[in-house]
């Protein structure tokens, strides 16, 4: 126990030193639009489209992750990966979306690390990230680091509700540009997506919003990924964080690929049968595939989908107050 805590402290110290150097370098780099303070909200000039990798910052970040996360986890056997055979199609001209549950800040790092160490380096180098616009304005350091990734900015659902008609039109234009950029880029690159749209700090999956269907439909194949126990690590935002980081196994389970054409056809059939939208049925099928890999984190998707859709129908049929 004490030895593991000592390893944690060394890792945190090393990460702090290296991240400080990265911050200095990143602060000197040009950014495509001004970074606002952390209280800033969506604005009419919010960026859309695809932004390529910043090679310098990306190399810094990659080696920080390998040294501070990858090597310790592999040396002490704390990151366990199952189902690698389901990734055999990566990098062979197939347009792939990696869709995972999301419980920790480290999820993105862990997925990239196991791909890196298992021989999918070219795929990792060219991954595209879909990132909600609001995350660019939380603080200057985080914003600048996110700006270094190959990314497509979207406007999350919780930033759309209650907007004026003019803002709704701007958001629609942004999302249209995002889909156009994604369709152009995914032919050459893979896509990493956390379709829930936010971290689940309690470890339980939340309902996926139907808007994610438009992103996933740009690909040929969806590979569901389940991450187990990441929300218990030091790098999680759960309160309080759990020590030690390397004293807890984190398991990544990779499921069989789902062809997007099959998901599309099945979702249309289910939509007609259960009276829901095809897009909602589509993302619920993806959510169910993820939950089956890590049922202890399945949340709402531990229910039968028919039960979820029945509850949706009952809510729609409830009389409105007033």
Automatic annotation (TrEMBL):
Source species: Candidatus Woykebacteria bacterium RBG_13_40_15
Highest rank taxon of the organism: Bacteria
Residue ranges crossing the lipid bilayer per the database entry: 6-30
Record's keyword annotation contains Lipoprotein: no
Xref: Gene3D superfamilies: Glycerol-3-phosphate (1)-acyltransferase
Gene Ontology biological process: phosphatidic acid biosynthetic process
Transferase in keyword set: yes
CDD domains associated with the record: LPLAT_AGPAT-like
Domain Phospholipid/glycerol acyltransferase: 96-230
The protein's name in its UniProt record: Phospholipid/glycerol acyltransferase domain-containing protein
Keywords: Acyltransferase, Membrane, Transferase, Transmembrane, Transmembrane helix
Alphabetized GO MF terms: 1-acylglycerol-3-phosphate O-acyltransferase activity
